[in-house]
Amino acid sequence: MGQDMRSVVSDVENLLQDVGRTGGTVHEFKTRMNRALDAARDRLDQIDGTVRTGARQAATVTDDYAHDHPWQILGAGALLGIAIGLLVASRR
After folding, report:
1. Reported pTM
2. N or C terminus of the chain: which is more exposed, having fewer CB within 10 Å?
3. Contact between 36 and 4 (Cβ < 8 Å)
């Protein structure tokens, strides 16, 4: 994802430099810029879909685990509560 965004920024920078050097028309610049932005939007939409799908799967797996192992979840929650309580108490 980070590489994709760097690529888009690099493309836009190159477009800006090309317009300055070649004296291209505003219409050409707008066309090239719109193409680059459309490509960036498409890639961000793909990434968004992938992230949403992964989050849904993680939530489903977590929910299934919690229903299948309620006592382990209760124990983990209790341990976490004790750990936080000890940290808070040690700071006073």
Report:
1. 0.53
2. C
3. no
